[in-house]
Amino acid sequence: MLKFATAAAAVFFLLTDVAHAQLSETEQRIVAAVKQRTPAALELLERSVRINSGTLNPEGVRAVGEIYRAELDALGFKTRWIDMPPSMKRAGHLVATQEGGQGKRVLLLGHLDTVFEKDSSVPLWERQGDRVRGQGVNDMKGGNVIMIEALRALKKVGALEHANVEIMFTGDEERTGVPLQMARADMVAMGKRANYALSFEGSIKRDGVDTASIARRSHGSWTLHVKGKAAHSMGVFSAQSGYGAIYETARILNAFREQVIEPALTFNPGLIFGGTDVSYNNDTATASAFGKSNVIARDAQALGDLRYLSPEQGERARQKMQTIVSTGNLPGTSATISFTEIYPPMPPTEAGRTLADLYSKASLDAGLGRIDIFDPSLRGAGDVQFVAPYTVGIDGLGAQGRGAHSDDEDLEIASIERGAVRAALLIYRLTQSASR
């Protein structure tokens, strides 16, 4: 709490200092440097998008990483590749560091992988007027390019040399490697060193206004196992034969729906299967079941996700769900539930709100309009959540597009320049503030 209070105060005074300022001479040159690179930035985006980098295509992920690594090397960053164990079946992460020795420490986050694997039928790159359709063009190679172009503009005007900036491009954001603690250990260490974390997932427009995120809900899973008595269906509902596993599964899921509802909390049963015998293959996310309509189901399973905004809300939800599973079981049945947290929650903080105000001020000063805070219940999970307990974070600084994760994922080309201008000004103002 002390760190958050200190951070909030620091951002407040920084915001106060620039509250009545427009762009300084240096900031005007930063904006000009971004705009001068607009055609080249689109070319950089195209080069990276034309390489398939689905999470399970480690060669493609690394190839995209090498493109960005060359750009960062040219900007004077010290770059390195962090390999993951072969058993994890992931490409690893690209890390870059600029130790300037003064000002606040800023951590920048992106990811190299996409949801589109090598067998995807989605075109790699398809120009459509002022938009581009392609694999990961919005989520999040557009954001990666915005980050690099913002840093390039700072470098050109001499504002990067003394800044303290660390960068991590993960190679498994879409399908995180296991064990999770190993996959994100380096990121957490970087987060603990940073005063601010800026993540470049796609920006979202709501009611005509651009937004950013200072809160993101957790991403976790739950597995429900239910047992009944296999018997002839003529005895269903009797004391001897019971109700069977499928009826008990239905009771439990409906009780979840009726009793566990809270604002910003969701729990979705994405797969249900039951019968006399059932099995599930985690590698292929497929289930199989054997059963007959005249036999009471002996086994059933339900797999779902769980999303919450704070650790306290998550604990309440788990306790309520556990109580429903373990009490009030239908005759002849029993059930157990297990939980796994993949992405921790990122609850809103005052420090985060103040950082969002500073980002909005940079946008307004550049003539690009205000930035509103996005409703976390309308967004999924992201890497910034792993560092949120240790620093002040903001997400959604990337490109604007439509249909992320779908066959029609696209990007508004003009959002690359807008995003790079905003990010460059924010990074400049943060790194020019006093050291802690």
From TrEMBL:
Q: Which cofactor does it need?
A: Zn(2+)
Query: Under the GO molecular function aspect, what terms does this record hold?
Result: hydrolase activity; metal ion binding
Return the InterPro entries for the record: ArgE/DapE_CS, Bact_exopeptidase_dim_dom, Peptidase_M20, Peptidase_M20_dimer, Peptidase_M20A
Q: Where is the signal peptide?
A: 1-21
Q: Per the database record, which ranges form the Peptidase M20 dimerisation domain?
A: 214-330
Q: Which UniProt keywords apply?
A: Hydrolase, Metal-binding, Signal, Zinc
SUPFAM superfamilies recorded:
Bacterial exopeptidase dimerisation domain (SSF55031), Zn-dependent exopeptidases (SSF53187)
Superkingdom of source: Bacteria
Q: What is this protein called?
A: Peptidase M20
Which organism is this protein's natural source? Caldimonas brevitalea
